Structures are given as structure tokens and as C-alpha cells.
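Progress against Task 2.4 (sequence-to-structure conversion) is shown through the following example record, which the project officer requested during the mid-term review.
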Amino acid sequence: MKAGEILMSGMVEAVMPRQVRTAQLLLLVMAFAGMIVILVLKESLTSYGLGHLMAPWLLVWVCALLALTYTERARGGTRVATIVVMVFVLVSSFNQAFDAAAPSEFVDAALRILFGVPVVVLLFLPEARAWFDRAK
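C-alpha cells generated for the chain above:
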């Protein structure tokens, strides 16, 4: 069945745009990368350092959970919530990258920037907006 074909019930099949699927996959890969970063760096950190490391990744995991809801029933609020939370992650990541005292801190922040910027850009595209603002 091709995208947009009319089903027997008379409804048109909704197919997620490539841009939204890419943002969804980037968020899930980013969440997985966060788990790897924390597992690799946890031995060399104090409790305070581990909490400082995990705080931005918790927001990434919230975005990844939101990405799991990018189905036919997702609406604009899901897209906006993902963008807002991801902007908070990016602001703190840029701050951490510029103030990094160790290479591991810079790599940690760079990973969030590397994956986060494309997610925000993809969710601002007209195709993504149309996917989340379509009629029920």
C-alpha cells in the first residue's frame, strides 16, 4: 500500500515524514549514547560529578520518551515540548563545552550538541509541522 491510499474504512493512511522519523531515530540514538557515556565515565566521578553528568542526559531521555509518541495520534504539543526541552539541553551543553576542564567533559557535551541541533532543525521543518498539525 502506498502512502496516502484510501483504506477500506475510507480513511487515508498516515505515513510519518522522513524528517520526523530521522528526528525520532536521532533522539533514540542520543538516549542510548547517553547511557554509554554515563557507564564509561561513572567510575572516575564522585556522586556530585555523576549527578552533574546525568542532569542533561535525563532531559535527553525525556525527549526520547516523547519521540516514542510520534505516532499518528501525536499533535503539535509533543513537537513543541521536544523542541523546548532539547533547547534547554543544547544551552547547557554549549555552556559545558566552553567551560570543559577535561576532554571527557567536552566529548560529553559535544555528543549532545552533535545529535541535538539536527533534531531541533528537523522538528522546525514544514513537513514536521504538517505531521503534528494534521487533522485527526
